[in-house]
Amino acid sequence: MMVELVVVSTLIDISRGASTAADKGSPKTDMSTANLIRVDQSGKGDFRKIQEAIDSVPSNNSELFFIWVKPGTYREKIVVPSDKPLVTLSGTKSSNTIITWNDNGNIFDSPTLSILASDFVGRFLTIQNTFGTGGKAVSVRVSGDKAAFYNCRILSYQDTLLDDSGRHYFNNCYIEGAVDFIFGSAASLFEKCHLHSLSERDGAITAHRRESSEENTGFTFLGCKISGDGAAFLGRPWGSFSRVVFAYTFMSTLIIPQGWNDWGDQATHSTVHYGEYKCYGPGANRSKRVGWSRSLTSDEAASYLTKDMIGGRDWLRAPPNRFKRGSALLSAMHIENE
């Protein structure tokens, strides 16, 4: 029911500190009104496939487009190209709106969903790569700037989420994998997310790639939960200046006491930035942590505890409350009664 989408979307944390004015890069965009496109496998929408709906968005568009995906399992490999910014892809519940594919190999070619455009929002979706344990199989690739995901489930085994480049925000998402399953070069804030490791022995949850101290990038996990039945490290350095911080995060017994892995390169001990701040749970005990990770002070942690670290107050946007379909202007109340 659309009522669930509208009601829930007005309650999630995006409304706190979100910008309802136009982004500085798109000063004329009305962020309260979106063009509505419906995807329904039964044929009652505008399109049966998600990719067809994305393809219908005009190139270099300057208006919001809200692609409402009706419940179902969509077996598609989807790309939001770089010339289609300002797109929202939304289901009603992640449990009944599923995008699935089965591919492996190159991390840039295997994703089920690839986001190359800026100002993308994903909501209430499950995105999965069902290839399994045999190699790199990306579920979601995010290579556009200013992308946000809310209440999504992102599932695979190795290299689940390629958080490639740009500034990104993940809120109330469930992310599952075993090997480097959150990796890339982005500057990203993960807030209230659930990270579930399938690693049996020594997998890593994160593999951040930062090649110099001048790069203002890194992964921050704020108020998250880590679970799993095997054993895993918090992270290992894909780049020599890898930067990852966990704050106010519950860590289960899954976490290996040393906490962090150097990927066989001791030279990174003096260049990586791996920090923990007021985490809790049996896996948060730092008594056996590697000496080159840090227990952050309140002053050191302060810059990681707000959306300012990704400039989010300038670009995170509240859901639209009006929708255009053709020449008709519809309110959220009208849509929810469909």
Describe the model.
With 338 residues, the chain is mainly beta. Helix content is 8%, strand content 34%. The chain folds into two domains: 1-164 and 318-338, Single-stranded right-handed beta-helix, Pectin lyase-like (Pectate Lyase C-like), CATH 2.160.20.10; 174-316, Pectate Lyase C-like, CATH 2.160.20.10. The strands form three sheets. Strands 26-25-23-20-17-14-11-8-5-2-1-27-28 form a 13-stranded mixed sheet. An eight-stranded parallel sheet has the order 3-6-9-12-15-18-21-24, with no helix packed on it. It has a seven-stranded parallel sheet with strand order 4-7-10-13-16-19-22. 50% of the residues are buried. Mean pLDDT is 91; it is low at 1-26.
Question: Features of this protein?
Answer:
single chain; 338 residues; mainly beta; Pectate Lyase C-like; 2 domains; 13-stranded mixed β-sheet; eight-stranded parallel β-sheet; 5 helices
Task: Compose a concise summary of this entry.
With 338 residues, the chain is mostly beta strands. The protein folds into 2 domains: 1-164 and 318-338, Single-stranded right-handed beta-helix, Pectin lyase-like (Pectate Lyase C-like, 3 Solenoid); 174-316, Single-stranded right-handed beta-helix, Pectin lyase-like (Pectate Lyase C-like). It has helices at 2-9, 50-55, 298-301, 312-315, 332-336, and strands spanning 33-39, 64-69, 72-75, 78-80, 87-90, 97-101, 113-115, 120-123, 126-129, 140-142, 147-150, 153-155, 161-163, 167-171, 174-177, 182-184, 187-191, 194-197, 203-208, 218-222, 225-228, 232-235, 243-247, 250-251, 273-277, 294-295, 322-325, 328-331.
